[in-house]
Amino acid sequence: MASLKILISNDDGVFAGGIRTLANAAVARGHQVSVVCPDQERSATGHGLTLQTPIRAERADELFDDGVTAWACSGTPSDCVKLALFSLLEEWPDLVLSGINHGPNLGTDVLYSGTVSAAMEGTIEGLPSLAVSSADFQWRQFVPAAGIALDVAEQMLAAGWPSGMLLNLNVPPLPAESIGALRWCRTAVRRYTDQFDRRVDPRGRAYYWLAGEVANDLEAEVAGPAGWPIDVAHVHGGGVSLTPLQPELFWRGAASDLPRLELSQPVL
Predict the structure, then answer these.
(1) CA gyration radius for the chain?
(2) Which of 10, 241, 19, 242 has the alpha carbon at shortest distance from 115?
(3) Which tens digit of pLDDT belongs to each residue from 38-70?
(4) Measuring CA to CA, which residue among 240, 246, 239 is closest to residue 223?
(5) pTM higher than the cut 0.90
(6) CB distance 164 to 102 below 8 Å
(7) At what angle do helices 143-159 and 17-28 cross, to 10 degrees?
């Protein structure tokens, strides 16, 4: 494939092994790679933007292989992609990649994910964009996921990437030879039990850690073709999930299901 201009970001920060593996793999394929990512971990920041403080960016080429141009940014993942597109890059990229995330981004967790939000910034600006995650927080063998992400992106570009579509890729924590089939997947509903751990500090004041156990609802009705597997189940079975997402969140139910609402008094 012809050389692509690729922008890569993440939410785990510039020192994360996942982003270095992905960027280095892309430049090894002959692509022109720019990295703009947070200067520290910004996981679960969702689509947050920095509005009350300045954003700083410093060059970080030395953390990557030769040929990668990199900046470490003080902002959120979404800040990083915006800053790259509108200030740092001389030319817009052909492709935006986000990851490789250290942990899964499955089901409705995509709403909180800084990794997915960074890619979504690219989608909002009309660019083909893909988020890629390694579906285990302790797994550190990112080479297979990098290869799969680049294969998927290159093939989608060659086939014609649908406008306004973000791809969310999750790779199971397995050696390359043990990874199962790549499938288009639907997005599961993920809920958590016992979400907060209440503790008391030495001064007797209560504080809370957001924690909780995942309670996946694989029986819930979810959008997408009925024949597609659900992402959580497919990845847990050793397969690679690929889910098409979009920025538009409009409810897809029937308008006839909505009640007629009236105000109790006129609005002046």
Answers:
(1) 20
(2) 10
(3) 999 898 888 899 899 999 999 999 999 999 999
(4) 246
(5) yes
(6) no
(7) 50
